Amino acid sequence: MNDNLIGIFIPRDHYESVKKGSVSSSYQQFELAANTLGLSICFFTANGFLDSKDVKMLTMNLSNDSYSESTACLPKVIYNRSSLRNKKTREILNYFIENGSYVFNVTPISNSKYYVNQLLEKESHIAMHLPQTLFGSKKNLRKLMDQFDCLFIKPCYSSVGKGILYLERHKKLGWFIYEKSANNKGWGKSEFTNLEKIRIERLFQHRQFIIQEKIPLATYKNRPFDLRVIIQKNSTGHWAITGTAAKLAPKNQLITNVGSGGEFGDLRQFLLASNLSYPEVEQKVHTLALDVASALEKTWPNIADLGLDIGITEEGKPYFIECNLRGKYGSFEKRKELFTLWKNIHHTPIAYAGYLLEKYNQKVMKLNKQDS
Questions:
Q1: CB–CB of 304/349 below 8 Å?
Q2: What are phi and psi for residue 62, nearest 5 degrees?
Q3: Record's Pfam families (predicted)?
Q4: Which residues touch 263 (CB under 8 Å, ≥6 apart)?
Q5: What is the pTM of this model?
Q6: For 37-60, what is each residue's pLDDT tens digit?
Q7: 138 and 95 in a common domain
Q8: Are 285 and 229 in contact (CB under 8 A)?
Q9: Are residues 224 and 346 in the same domain?
Q10: What angle do CA 292, 203, 191 make, to 5 degrees?
Q11: Nearest CA to 9 among 69, 58, 81, 68?
Q12: Which of 213, 240, 268 finishes a domain?
């Protein structure tokens, strides 16, 4: 077996695409990173799992830059890039851990927005940077509507802003509800009537939601912005900020998700327009990101690759919004000013995998010396 082999666990459809010769630019970056570090990588998936010792895997044939499938021993270091929503996937990854492999970017349970919030609320130094958040229920909706004038209702499991609802109280007209239009290009507005309340309460019965205070985000030209902070474990095994990207909401819209029409922008310019100090805000954001990663690691020791959404108020205070364990950064690749960050996002986990592999090899050597 190749002693420098790193395994990357990927979704089944991705595995089939690579097998057929269609390799994404992200997977190509993993290969480039491995080559730079003197490592080799293989891709494998759930349907290639045979037993604790063998897996079907795809490795690159250097003679023609194509991938071929073979069966080999389970890699000793595995970087998970598959969704943790699937219980079977979590069971397989945990089985690999139990059989001696170092597996990272995996949690024992699915990371719902509510559960993450509960974990972070336990840390007093982080709790002050969290919006008020309750689990979606009739009682909690009523409670937060009594406390705040603006609320978000978010699915516990969603991405790119899908399924988000927004409630806002107008002083004289009462409550209104906003939700994405069918074409996903804007927000529809309607009165929050008793019928609407009943509809929301029924949603709570069939799907998990959080109800969350709206943070008064700083704005640029009347458009709110927030940050995606990528924090990963590096070649020394420590958490480090890989990079930060500012996201600006579309005109007359509420959320900054680039997949929903938001756009990347220059954080320095945004902060200057808001009379905020870039070095001061950056330090506060980085401190919060490192604190969040360290706090989550207490419960999830096998995490190493996080994308944090962090908002900034008009006073420059950072607020944690949500955490992504399997960020997708294709839109970074298309922006010249973010391309280097995009490359580093792919190279850092491979460098961390190399650190784990060296750690594993040292452990084996130590055991062999003890036995000899």
A1: yes
A2: -65, -20
A3: ATPgrasp_YheCD
A4: 247, 248, 250
A5: 0.91
A6: 999 999 999 877 766 678 899 999
A7: no
A8: yes
A9: yes
A10: 100
A11: 81
A12: 213
